[in-house]
From TrEMBL, chain A:
Gene3D superfamilies: ABC transporter involved in vitamin B12 uptake, BtuC. CDD domains: TM_ABC_iron-siderophores_like. GO terms for biological process: cellular response to iron ion; response to zinc ion; transmembrane transport. Keywords: Cell membrane, Membrane, Transmembrane, Transmembrane helix, Transport. Belongs to the ABC-3 integral membrane protein family. GO terms for cellular component: ATP-binding cassette (ABC) transporter complex. The chain crosses the membrane at residues 23-47, 53-73, 80-98, 110-129, 156-174, 199-227, 239-260, 272-295. It is a multi-pass membrane protein. This is Manganese/zinc/iron transport system permease protein.
UniProtKB/TrEMBL annotation, chain B:
It comes from the Bacteria. Keywords: ATP-binding, Nucleotide-binding, Transport. Pfam families: ABC_tran (PF00005). PANTHER family: IRON TRANSPORT SYSTEM ATP-BINDING PROTEIN HI_0361-RELATED, METAL TRANSPORT SYSTEM ATP-BINDING PROTEIN TM_0124-RELATED. Belongs to the ABC transporter superfamily. GO terms for molecular function: ATP binding; ATP hydrolysis activity. This is Manganese/zinc/iron transport system ATP-binding protein. The keyword Nucleotide-binding applies. It comes from Winogradskyella eximia.
Length: 384, 265
């Protein structure tokens, strides 16, 4: 057992060593970490604007752009293809926005429409390209699910620069972003051009998505945007902390995802990163102290138990009140009429020192009487 | 404490100092028509709101009450007509105007605190990029104190009751230190204590010479709370002092049914 464990530790240290020495692994780890950070950061804005699905639509809308860029240039240069993706992603996004403002259609319909139309067109172009007698055509379909292994140093530099830019813009317009996210109409009345802020946020979301296409791919990209943000929301009630945490969660999803995929027979990196991110989400949903399911449930149970206890104690108080000596013993049978009473609650009251048992008789202690009278007064205050 | 504030309302009864409407016009609306798609929501509204009134806008659901406010504030684009604030366009006068939107128009689960929301009231005078500092924080704390929410400054906004959320919105408008206040149903879903607290603040604003315009639903309280009223149902039915025009005739015209309101002595 200990041997196995130490073996594992050795593996991990060996892996960490590799991350720093091996060029490919280092590039991929850095790339996915930066990608996770920027998508987590911007994803917070998308989630808080209730535009979670926008990311999905944008990433799917980018596909025809990749295909068209290839058709025009005939080259498979990543940057060229991503510029194509950026253009068609932006076109898709602004079509969605104008559909929502100019027609009766709701935003979910507009998102679904643009997503499927663009994706369908993109797939059509991909199959068309595959039938071309061009030796260069193979491998475009890697943009569907991404292929982290194709990341090179210049890609990582590109991601780092965009992330830095995004950070500067976010810090500069932090106040404007925040108020727009919370209350857009009010922001307008204060004299801010909400369209400008909106365009700024949206353009950055599109850029972040396009950057991730090579690594995570069209289909899974929206998870990178949503999962870290959804997880981060569980742990904090401050926007700044949420954005920061989402960036951290995103970055760690990238690092862990790469590590798992590299150490387990080269599992496809993109899906593994997304799964790691969703583990963050699951963990946060359950274990967050204030919003998590577990502690919520514990609080519910504890409150219910306390109430049961208080009900029984209040009932006893009413009986004891009628006697001059508050510790006058009464038979346990009286309590059977009372619904809050169980053997369990009685023994708990004894544990707390509120009640003393003597055979089939119970009596309130001084302490119990005092606690009960406090409860009773509180109850009356609430009713008043 | 509670009893005291109830008495305050009676004492500060407005009937003896009702404005005549002859003074300066704070807000002027000309031929305003607004439509969502093809259906007109507001039809050819002419409205003059005199400075210093505490005015209720009443009318049935879908009468365009919120739309009227939003059009005046430039949130919605009218298809015709114009709005002026003290004779100039809203864009030029926006620092004179504060707005309290409907409580339900925002997501209260947004990760922020009560103080932070109130601070947003200072963003307009700060303009782009500049961050709020100590001065703004002090103003926000003062506003929180005015609405009795100072103790809740650090509270996450989702953990506030409906009435407390409404007070936070009011405080955010107070921070703007405006001359004209537009409020969209500030009494919706609040308890009696909050309602009294809010109306007292509105009356204080009026006493300080501010103009307050409130979308209001509870017809029973119109004579008690307001000195000016506008009846609206897509078209403007009537506007003027409550004591002159708040009668069964106008209520019937606005609400379409034979409406009898029992005005308590």
């Amino acid at each position: 057992m200990i041997f196995l464990l130490s073996q594992k530790v050795l593996d991990i240290t060996k892996y960490i060593e590799l991350v720093f020495t091996d060029y490919t692994l280092r590039t991929i780890t850095l790339g996915t970490a930066i990608l996770g950070a920027i998508t987590g950061m911007l994803g917070s804005f998308a989630v808080l604007r209730k535009q979670s699905l926008l990311g999905d639509a944008i990433s799917h809308a980018a596909l025809p752009g990749i295909a068209i860029a290839f058709l025009i240039t005939g080259a498979k240069d990543t940057n060229t293809l991503l510029v194509g993706a950026l253009v068609s992603g932006l076109i898709g996004t602004f079509w969605i926005k104008s559909i929502v403002t100019k027609t009766h259609l709701k935003s979910d319909t507009a998102l679904g429409l643009i997503l499927s139309v663009f994706f369908g067109f993109g797939m059509l172009l991909l199959t068309f390209i595959q039938k071309q007698p061009n030796a260069n055509q193979a491998g475009l379909d890697k943009y569907l699910f991404g292929q982290a292994a194709t990341l090179v140093e210049s890609d990582v530099w590109m991601m780092a620069i965009v992330t830095g830019l995004c950070l500067i813009v976010m810090l500069t317009f932090w106040k404007e972003f925040k108020i727009l996210l919370f209350d857009a109409d009010y922001t307008k009345t204060l004299g801010f051009n909400t369209r400008t802020i909106d365009v700024l946020i949206t353009v950055f979301i599109v850029i972040a998505i396009v950057l991730g296409l090579q690594t995570v791919g069209v289909v899974l990209m929206s998870a990178m945007l949503l999962a870290p943000a959804a997880a981060a929301r569980q742990w904090t009630n401050s926007l700044a902390t949420m954005v920061f945490l989402a960036a951290i969660f995103g970055a760690f999803s990238g690092v862990f995802g790469t590590a798992i995929s590299a150490s387990q027979n080269n599992l496809s990196t993109g899906p593994v990163i997304v799964l790691v991110a969703s583990v963050f989400v699951g963990f946060s949903f359950i274990f967050s102290p204030s919003r998590g399911l577990l502690f919520k449930q514990i609080r519910v149970i504890k409150n219910r138990r306390d109430l049961e206890l208080h009900k029984t104690l209040a009932f006893m108080y009413h009986i004891a009140e009628t006697h001059e000596n508050i510790s006058h013993p009464h038979t346990i049978k009286i309590l059977n009429n009372f619904q809050g009473y169980t053997k369990n609650t009685l023994s708990k009251l004894v544990d707390k020192g509120y009640v003393e048992l003597n055979g089939k008789m119970w009596s309130l202690t001084q302490d119990g009487f005092k606690t009960a009278s406090n409860l009773y007064n509180q109850q009356n205050e609430i009713n008043e | 404490m509670k009893k005291e504030s109830k008495e305050n309302i009676k004492h500060s009864s407005l009937s003896d100092e009702t404005p005549t409407g002859a003074g300066t016009i704070a807000v002027k609306v000309d031929d305003l028509t607004v439509a969502y798609n093809y259906k007109p929501v507001l039809w050819d509204i002419d409205l003059e709101i005199p400075e210093g009134v505490l005015m209720a806008i009443v009318g049935p659901n879908g009468a365009g009450k919120s739309t009227l406010i939003k059009s005046i504030l430039g949130i919605l684009k009218p298809i015709a007509g114009s709005v002026t604030i003290y004779g100039k366009s809203y864009e030029k006068q926006r620092k004179l105007v504060a707005y309290v939107p409907q409580k339900g128009s925002v997501d209260w689960d947004f990760p922020t605190t009560a103080l932070d929301v109130v601070m947003m009231g200072t963003y307009g005078s700060l303009g782009w990029i500049k961050r709020p500092g100590q001065k703004e924080k002090k103003a926000a704390l003062e506003a929180l104190e005015k609405v009795g929410m100072l103790a809740f400054q650090g509270r996450q906004i989702s953990q506030l009751s409906g009435g407390q959320q409404q007070r936070i919105f009011l405080a955010r408008a107070l921070v703007q230190n405006a001359s004209i206040y537009f409020m969209d149903e500030p009494f919706q879903g609040v308890d009696a204590t909050t309602e009294i607290a809010i109306i007292n603040i509105l009356k204080e604003l009026r006493k300080a010479g501010k103009t307050v315009i409130v979308v209001h639903h509870d017809l029973q309280t119109v004579p008690e709370y307001f000195d000016w009223v506008t009846f609206l149902n897509v078209k403007k039915i009537a506007t003027g002092p409550v004591k002159d025009i708040f009668n069964d005739d106008n209520l019937t015209k606005t609400y379409g049914i034979n409406y009898k309101v029992s005005i308590q002595e």
